[in-house]
Amino acid sequence: MVDRQIRIGRSRSVGPNESVLVVAELGQNHNGNPALAEALIDAAAWAGADAVKLVKRDLASELSREARVRRYDSRHAYAATYGEHRRLLELSAENHAALAARARRLGLVHLATACDASSAALLDEIGVDAFKIASRDLANLPLVRDVARRGRPVLLSTGMSDFGEIDAAVGALRAADAEFVLMQCTSLYPTPFDQAHLRSLATLAARYDALVGYSDHTPGVLLPPVAVGLGAVVIEKHLTLDRNMKGTDHACSVEPDELRQLVADVRQVEAALGRADKPVAPGTEQVRARLGRSLVTRTALAAGTRIEEPMLALKCPGDGFSWFDRDLVLGRRLKRDLAADEKLTWDDIA
């Protein structure tokens, strides 16, 4: 396990000894509507999330002319061409600044995915608490280097890349002394359970000596708590107000009550992970006294008998000599007659 913490924002840290950072991924689920984005932030706060994450794109940097003019016939389309569709889903710089302020007023960490250098500069100016590099941009080393040099923590998503590409991106982050969390994810929407590969969390942590997190695209809320049990220090899940809304990400998102359950489950797993030094829980002494086993006589024994191991058995209750105490008893002599099945005490032995 990587034994370090990363500071995110004014007062939040992530790491093995810190509370897991639960991120409500808003993405494009605001459908280009600032009021809906505000409602999503409010819902994330109500559900107990620690952070919200938005996405900023500069479409001139994002899309080629071919992509902009391509017909977009999806049932989720907001316009006839993909470029116009994407324009209608984009929030303004002023919207992003206002949403960041709203998140902070509600006590949420403000994260954002930068899809290009100009968006990274805008988010940096707004004062984003940490950047996200989306899976599709892990291999976009110019963008990774640009974000890395800005001095803010980075969540690096790995959903489309093999180790060669991850090696290069991690190298770029480390060359800039950027703090980062590697996010295990699978870029399928939704992700089948057999493609989640949660065991990769341990592999990423060991290979890169890095903190790891999990960005979940599977249905429901089962896997994020499991990922926490496997070492994830950040959990990210898409949030929507209604999975039936128009838009490509709504169907693989959770609604507010489900996010609230996810947060509760994550906190229970955190509590259950406890300490690594195998402590004996308070109160178990009383349980052991009732249910444990003590040394008792196997048969009736006369006073003066020298106690030997075959004369003894182990039976409840457990408030007498244990098996590990037998060297305190063996070879000693009885002070009084004992019936069969009688528990030994200090008063019985000389």
Tags for this entry?
single chain; elongated; 16% strand; Type Iii Antifreeze Protein Isoform Hplc 12; two-stranded antiparallel sheet; TIM Barrel; 8-stranded parallel β-barrel; alpha/beta; 33% helix
Description:
The chain is an alpha/beta fold. The chain has two domains: 6-273, Alpha-Beta Barrel (TIM Barrel); 284-348, Type Iii Antifreeze Protein Isoform Hplc 12. Helix content is 33%, strand content 16%. The protein contains twelve helices and twelve strands. The chain has helices at 34-47, 59-62, 65-69, 82-89, 93-105, 117-126, 141-148, 163-175, 200-208, 223-229, 256-273, 284-291; strands spanning 6-8, 12-14, 21-25, 51-56, 109-114, 130-133, 154-157, 180-184, 211-216, 234-238, 294-297, 312-315. Strand 5 (109-114), helix 6 and strand 6 (130-133) form a beta-alpha-beta unit. Helix 10 (223-229) runs parallel beside helix 11. It starts with 5 loop residues before the first strand and ends in a 35-residue tail after the last strand. The model has no long low-confidence stretch (mean pLDDT 94).
